[in-house]
Amino acid sequence: MDLFEKFKDEIDGNAASIYVLNEPLENRFPMHWHHKSQILLVEGGIAYLNTHDKQYYIPARHFVWIPPHVAHNIKFNSSSMVIHNIYFMDEGDVDHPFYGQLSIYPVTGLIQEILQLSEAWQGNVYSGSWEYELLTTLKHILPHISKQPFTLLLPTTDDMRMQEILSYLHDNVSETLMLPDIAARFGYSVRSLTRLFKQTLNTSFLQYVKMMKMTRAMELLLQTDKNVSEVAYEVGYSGLTAFSNTFQQMINMRPSDFRQLK
Question: Model pTM greater than 0.90?
């Protein structure tokens, strides 16, 4: 039995238990799903959660709630990151307005304290123990204290035409990327490329480019020592004010404050 099958069986083997995994193993698993709901907390960098059609960015001091049966995989590129996973018993979660949605939220002080208590735990936690009661309480309070989701994500596609275009955009994130120029480079009219973005990614060219630049900015702010002005330049902004305003609009945080999550 390989590592993934071993842990999948352990996580879902007892439907009534809560399973705690404080090892950074999820990034070694292929696209998969669980019968249980999952909370994943990131400390010290950015993790990347992929579903079949989206890529989510999970910054440090944020958690992602993953409902049952949602196929996903997790990637991260820093060995110093700390990842906490808790898999909760299903209480009809898919039909709940909070538990039924894959969403990312900032970690509050209360959530952080509870998760710190569970740092040394590993494996199944069973009903009747104080540990089970504590984690059940954590699950039940989340909808009441997690009100403002972190919404930045990049849509993905299997369309080979778009993959070539998106690869070019990512490789040239530091440039000023204009729709007419990209359309001409790949042999499209502006109208045709606009339609292709909408059909395959359900977003506009401009919105995709803004999201792409802001996700790269988040990576640079958390994973390098570049100052905010240098980061702005690295993602194609000539002015700090325009960069900071766009970052604030999309991340709900000033770049200088976001850096403090490092």
Answer: no
Assign 3 a pLDDT band (cuts: 50, 70, 90).
Answer: confident
Backbone angles phi, psi at 88, to 5 degrees: -100, 150
Where do the domains of the chain lie?
Answer: 3-145, 158-259
**What CATH number is given for 3-145 in this structure?**
2.60.120.280
pLDDT at 1 over 70: no
Q: Give the DSSP per-residue string, 166-233.
A: HHHHHHTTTS---HHHHHHHTT--HHHHHHHHHHHHSS-HHHHHHHHHHHHHHHHHHHS---HHHHHH
Cβ neighbours for 257, distance < 8 A, ≥ 6 positions apart: none
- Match 């710190």 to its residue by tokens: 116
Give CATH for domain 158-259: 1.10.10.60
